C-alpha cells in the first residue's frame, strides 16, 4: 500500500479545500471499499481526508414528504430507519440485501454510491483494465465476464482503450434510481444538486470515469422525493448464494394501480450495466395499460431488447426479464 | 507515515505509534498483543476479524487504526471481562466450533446481532419490515450471521447457540 497522510477537516468546506489541493488524495467514508482497494494496490491515494464524522449522520424530513439522508448515515441505520421502512420499502430491502451486518454498520451512504466495480480484472493489478489503467485494454471482454454488463457497455474488442463491460455493484443505488433521488454535492465553487440519473455514467469512450463528479467534490446528502405509492414497492436480488454476495441481477420496482390499470410504475435494474439501469422503455409501455402478467412480460422483453450480452452472461437477459415480470406480478397482488 | 494514537481495546487505553496504513486488526494483533480477533481474508469477506466498535459489529481488517481513536473496541476476550459471556457458554454447550479460528468473530458478531434485534432492526428475510419487534428465527439468525464464514462448517451448531441466548434476551419467541 502506498504511504498516505491522514487528515481530518473541521467542516465539509474545509475537506473540499483540502482535497481540491491534493490531486492524488481521496475522501474516506467507512473505508469498506477504499481500504480494500488500497490494500490491493488498485487505489493509491497519498492523502486520505476522513469525512465519516464530517458529513451528516441524520435522516431529515423534507417539506414535500421526502427524506434527506446525510452522506455519513451508515447503511445499517438507513435500512433500520422507520421512515425508510414505511415510505420506501424497496430502499430498506435493497440496503438489507447488500454486504453483511458488519459491513453495513461501517459503510456510509456516500461511500456506497461511489463504490467501484467488482470486475475481477479491475481488482487484479497484473491484468489489463481500461478502468484501472486507462488504455491498457479490457481483460473481461474475452475473459471472465459472467457477472458483467449486458446493457450500455462498450465492446470494441479486448485491446481497444474504450472497451468496458463493468457493472456498478451497489444495491442501494438501484432503489435510489427507481425513486429519482438527487445527490447534494459540495465543490470548490459551492453546492450543486445532481439527479441520480446523471451521477453515474456509461463507459462510453472513457471507462476510467465511473461518475460525473469532479475531483474534490464531496457528497453531503441524498434527497429522496416523496412517492406516496412507493409503499407498494419491492427490491429483489438474484445471486449465487442466499446471502452476502453481489447481485447477478436485481430489480427495484414500485407500482401504482388504478383498479386493474397501471397508473404509474418505476423499475430499475442492478447488475446489468455500468450504472443503475432505469427501465424507461418498460415503464412507458406499461403506463395506462393493464396490470397483467402478459403485459408485464411484454414490457420487460421490450426493455431487454437492447441487451448485447457476451458468451457467458447471456443468462442475465432472461433472468432480468423474468425478474421484472415476477416482481410486478407480486406487487400487483400485494396489498398497498 | 507514523502517527501517535491511543486505542481503547477491551477497556484499556493503549497508546502506540502506528503507520497510517495499519488496520485496527493488525494494530491489535501485531502491536498490542490482543490476538482475540483473527485474520482470515483481510478483505471484509470472512468476518473472522469482527469486533464491536462503540458497540456495533464491524470488520476490523477494513478499519484503519487511526480512525478508531476515541472509540471503544471490544473483542470476544473483552466480552469475558467479568466471566464468560452467555454466548461463550452456549457455544461450548452446543459444540459450535471445530478448529475455533472463526469463533471470536462469530461471538462478537452474534453479540451485535442480539443488540440489533433488541433495537428492532429488520433483515433481508424479515417479512414485515415495519414490525417493531424482531423474532430471531433460525432463518433470521442465518441471514444476520452470513458475514461470518466457518471453514469447519459448524453452522448447524452456531445457529442453536445464538438462538438460546436470543430466547434468554427476549428476542426470540
Ligand atoms: C465482502 C463485501 C461484500 C459486499 N457486498 C455488497 C453487496 O452485496 N451489495 C452492495 O451494494 N455492496 C456490497 N459491498 C460494498 C459496500 O456496500 C461498500 O463497500 C460500501 O457501501 C462503501 O461505503 P464506505 O463508506 O465504506 O465507502 P469508502 O470505502 O470509504 O469509499 C468508497 C468511495 O467513495 C468515496 N467517498 C466516500 N464518501 C464520500 C463522500 N461523502 N463524498 C465523495 N466521495 C466519497 C471514497 O473516496 C471512495 O472512492 C460489499 C463489500 C464487501 C467488502
Ligand atoms: S470490464 Fe471494465 S473494469 Fe473490467 S477489465 Fe474491462 S475495462 Fe476493466
Ligand atoms: S479478516 Fe476481516 S473480514 Fe476476513
Ligand atoms: S470452527 Fe473452524 S473455521 Fe469455524
From TrEMBL, chain A:
Q: Which UniProt keywords apply?
A: Oxidoreductase
Query: What residue range is the signal peptide?
Result: none
Q: Which residues does the UniProt record annotate as the domain FAD-binding PCMH-type?
A: 1-229
A Pfam family of the record is FAD_binding_5
* Source taxon at top rank: Bacteria
Record PANTHER family: OXIDOREDUCTASE, XANTHINE DEHYDROGENASE SUBUNIT C-RELATED
Q: Tell me the protein's name.
A: Xanthine dehydrogenase family protein subunit M
Q: Which organism is it from?
A: Klenkia terrae
TrEMBL record, chain B:
Species whose genome carries this gene:
Klenkia terrae
- Identify the Gene3D superfamilies for this entry: 3.10.20.30, [2Fe-2S]-binding domain
Q: Does the keyword Iron apply?
A: yes
PROSITE patterns reported for this sequence: 2FE2S_FER_1 (PS00197), 2FE2S_FER_2 (PS51085)
Which keywords describe this protein according to UniProt? Iron, Metal-binding, Oxidoreductase
**Pfam families xrefs:** Fer2, Fer2_2
- Which residues are in coiled coils? none
InterPro entries membership: 2Fe-2S-bd (IPR002888), 2Fe-2S-bd_dom_sf (IPR036884), 2Fe-2S_ferredoxin-like_sf (IPR036010), 2Fe-2S_ferredoxin-type (IPR001041), 2Fe2S_fd_BS (IPR006058), Aldehyde_Oxdr_Iron-Sulfur (IPR052914), Beta-grasp_dom_sf (IPR012675)
Which residue range or ranges hold the 2Fe-2S ferredoxin-type domain? Answer: 3-79
Q: What is this protein called?
A: 2Fe-2S iron-sulfur cluster-binding protein
What PANTHER family does this protein's entry cite? Answer: OXIDOREDUCTASE WITH IRON-SULFUR SUBUNIT, OXIDOREDUCTASE, IRON-SULPHUR BINDING SUBUNIT-RELATED-RELATED
